[in-house]
Write a structure and sequence with these properties.
By secondary structure, this protein is of the alpha+beta class. The protein has one helix spanning about 60-65, and strands spanning about 10-20, 25-35. The protein has a two-stranded antiparallel ribbon. The protein is elongated. The N and C termini lie far apart (about 30 Å). InterPro entries: Ribosomal_Su5_D2-typ_SF, Ribsml_uS5_D2-typ_fold_subgr, Transl_elong_EFG/EF2_IV. This is Translation elongation factor EFG/EF2 domain-containing protein. It comes from marine sediment metagenome. Keywords: GTP-binding, Nucleotide-binding.
């Protein structure tokens, strides 16, 4: 290893949210992968969504939830 953080995920989590209360209902599916950074590198949030599947306006809320 060259001093860089390992690319092997430290933690993976998946959550599905479904709520049906008439009409279309609500659905969400989140995959989170947490990897270690090098010493002193702090926190980095990377949005790996492609193709516009999720409105960009939702991403800051996801990051905030992860930080909390």
């Amino acid at each position: 290893m060259t001093g860089e953080a390992s690319c092997i995920p430290f933690l993976k989590a998946e959550y599905k949210y479904k709520k049906q209360s008439g009409g279309r209902g609500q659905y969400g599916h989140v995959l989170i992968e947490i990897n270690p950074l090098g010493s002193g590198e702090g926190f980095e949030f990377k949005n790996s969504i492609f193709g516009g599947a999720i409105p960009k306006s939702y991403i800051p809320g996801v990051e905030k939830g992860i930080r909390e």
